[in-house]
């Protein structure tokens, strides 16, 4: 009859040396439970939340409260996750760490990629992970003067070759513009600080601060240039003027390549007129100050700089005094700067005053960062402590799970050790168990008797020395065909044993006398027939 499956359980037995196992279990769990709780607090007590960081590098500043450097050792402290890099490509505008100028990206190229079949390298947006711009340098500059707008614009081009680092093989071309005007809200200096604040009030530092030095030098030199070029020194006022320079990255020397001038009457000479060379000193002073200011913002240590080298400053900036035939009152006097007022007595130009250390002394700036990197924010995962309810539930579930796991492993180990010390002895007292035990005993006895009988027969055969006859001879001897077994093929020592293989049924032994081995005479047969008649 089909039996439904049922649940079963295995019987156990008390552990030998039960007190020893009990106290060992108690000690282990008293020691392990606090460790389990602490581990769960460390591993489950925090959660990752997005945050904005100013640095791409992983730091411990993204660890909150219990996970900071003061409470947990490094092995138990969670590792800050990797931040998402920024994209850098054409059209992006950003500032660098010194925060002097805004740069517009013109092109980005990955120089590690091969050039296409058409020989043109394709621009692409690249990852930026906080790499410094100290390997970049000024490679070109452009000067523009507008009589209508009453402005002068200096455009400085920057090149990052990309072959100076195998870890970041990206070529970047970018530029920055500086507009100098008489209106404060249109001028670069006024836009940097705002129309209501001055340089001294916003910096709150000494005159050696690098920002104050750069902005002061640009302001006074631009005032010289705007004043001088805004007055009538030519046969016809210059409506616009443009000069383009290539800049040597090793010497910071601006080398003019193209120039153009348009007079107010609309005439446009094919070559730069000789009478306009009176403005060369003003233009070169402004270009040299602007080039050094951008290199300082890049923290470019390759190119000599006016703001870090006083000797180089005196070589590149001219006093720009009025040439012969011009009165000083018609040259640079009579105008004011935004933050430093008028020229001091005894000076004819702001350049002359700057070379004398007024209003700032150049050559030893302070506060400049060691490296220049993009001022941006990175989306970084940060560890924050969970709310109290979530923290308690996470720690409780984690601790309970780990405790049950430890309990299961410990019971497995203790069971194995207990069985090694003393095997289990189980006594059954139920009728089913007894019946099963008797059946198993009878089966074992029958199996043992069969095994003993087989062993006895084997031993008897070995003792009698019986040889194994051929199968056909043994069959004939067993059924009594042929009278006796063929002894011709039997070994000599076994002739007697083989002769006994003749089969005679037991019933014939009692009813008939043993037949002779030779046939009867015919006379005997006849006598028998007569008697029967």
What's the short story on this structure?
This is Transmembrane protein. Keywords: Membrane, Transmembrane, Transmembrane helix. This protein is an alpha+beta fold and 533 residues long.
Number of helices: 13
Distance between the termini: 72 Å
Give Rg in angstroms: 56 Å
What general outline do the C-alpha atoms trace? elongated
Identify the strand order in the major beta sheet.
Answer: 3-4-8-7-6-9-10
Give the helices and strands as they follow along the chain: HEEEEEEEEHHHEEHHHEHHHHHH
Give the overall average pLDDT: 80
| Total beta-strand segments | 11
Describe this structure as you would to a colleague.
By secondary structure, this protein is an alpha+beta fold. The protein has three domains: 18-80 and 379-420, no CATH class; 86-113 and 122-355, no CATH class; 463-505, no CATH class. Helix content is 35%, strand content 16%. It contains 13 helices and eleven strands. The chain has helices at 18-44, 188-193, 199-203, 210-229, 280-297, 310-316, 350-355, 388-421, 431-464, 471-479, 495-499, 506-511, 522-532, and strands at residues 46-53, 86-88, 93-95, 102-110, 126-128, 137-146, 151-160, 170-181, 238-247, 254-263, 378-385. The strands form three sheets. A seven-stranded antiparallel β-sheet has the order 3-4-8-7-6-9-10. A two-stranded antiparallel ribbon has the order 1-11. Helix 1 packs antiparallel against helix 8 and helix 4 packs antiparallel against helix 5 (280-297). The chain starts with 17 loop residues before the first helix and ends with a helix. Residues 505-515 have a biased composition (Basic and acidic residues). It comes from Thanatephorus cucumeris (strain AG1-IB / isolate 7/3/14). Keywords: Membrane, Transmembrane, Transmembrane helix. This is Transmembrane protein. Residues 444-465, 500-533 are annotated as: Disordered.
């Amino acid at each position: 009859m089909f039996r439904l499956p049922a649940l079963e359980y295995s019987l156990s037995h008390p552990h030998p040396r039960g007190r020893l196992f009990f106290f060992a279990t108690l000690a282990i769990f008293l020691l392990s439970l606090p460790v389990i709780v602490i581990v769960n607090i460390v591993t489950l007590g925090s959660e990752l939340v997005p945050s904005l960081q100013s640095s791409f590098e992983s730091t411990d500043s993204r660890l909150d409260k219990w996970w900071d450097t003061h409470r947990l050792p490094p092995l138990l402290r969670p590792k800050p996750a990797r931040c998402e890099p920024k994209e850098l490509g054409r059209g992006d505008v950003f500032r660098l760490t010194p925060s002097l100028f805004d740069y517009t990206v013109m092109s980005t190229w990955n120089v590690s990629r091969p050039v296409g079949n058409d020989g043109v390298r394709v621009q692409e947006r690249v990852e930026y992970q906080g790499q410094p711009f100290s390997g970049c340098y000024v490679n070109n500059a452009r000067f523009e003067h507008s009589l209508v707008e009453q402005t002068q614009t200096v455009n400085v081009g920057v090149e990052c070759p990309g072959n100076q680092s195998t870890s970041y093989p990206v070529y970047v071309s970018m530029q920055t513009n500086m507009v100098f005007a008489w209106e404060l809200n249109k001028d670069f200096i006024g836009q940097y600080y705002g129309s209501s604040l001055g340089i001294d009030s916003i910096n709150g530092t000494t005159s050696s601060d690098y920002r104050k030095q750069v902005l002061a030098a640009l302001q006074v030199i631009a005032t010289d240039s705007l004043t001088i070029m805004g007055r009538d020194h030519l046969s016809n006022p210059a409506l616009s003027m443009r000069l383009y320079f290539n800049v040597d990255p090793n010497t910071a020397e601006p080398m003019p390549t193209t120039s153009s001038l348009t007079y107010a009457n609309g005439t446009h000479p094919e070559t730069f007129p000789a009478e306009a060379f009176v403005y060369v000193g003003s233009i070169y002073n402004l270009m040299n100050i602007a080039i050094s200011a951008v290199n300082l913002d890049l923290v470019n240590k390759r190119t000599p700089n006016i703001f870090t080298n006083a000797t180089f400053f005196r070589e590149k900036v001219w006093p720009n005094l009025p040439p012969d035939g011009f009165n000083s009152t018609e040259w640079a006097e009579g105008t004011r700067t935004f933050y430093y007022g008028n020229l001091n007595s005894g000076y004819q130009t702001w350049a002359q005053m700057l070379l004398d250390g007024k209003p700032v002394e150049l050559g030893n700036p302070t506060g400049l960062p060691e490296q220049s990197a993009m001022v941006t924010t990175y989306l970084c995962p940060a560890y924050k402590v969970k709310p109290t309810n979530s923290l308690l539930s996470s720690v409780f579930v984690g601790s309970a799970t780990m405790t049950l796991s430890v309990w299961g492993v410990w019971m497995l180990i203790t069971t194995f050790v207990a069985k090694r010390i003393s095997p289990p002895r189980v006594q059954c007292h139920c009728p089913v168990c007894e019946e099963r035990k008797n059946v198993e005993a009878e089966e074992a006895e029958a199996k043992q008797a069969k095994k003993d009988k087989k062993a006895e027969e084997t031993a008897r055969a070995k003792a009698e020395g019986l040889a194994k006859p051929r199968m056909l001879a043994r069959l004939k001897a067993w059924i009594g065909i042929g009278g006796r077994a063929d002894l011709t093929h039997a070994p000599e020592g076994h002739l007697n044993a083989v002769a006994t293989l003749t089969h005679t049924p037991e019933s014939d032994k009692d009813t008939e006398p043993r037949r002779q081995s030779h046939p009867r005479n015919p006379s005997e047969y006849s006598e028998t027939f007569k008697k029967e008649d």
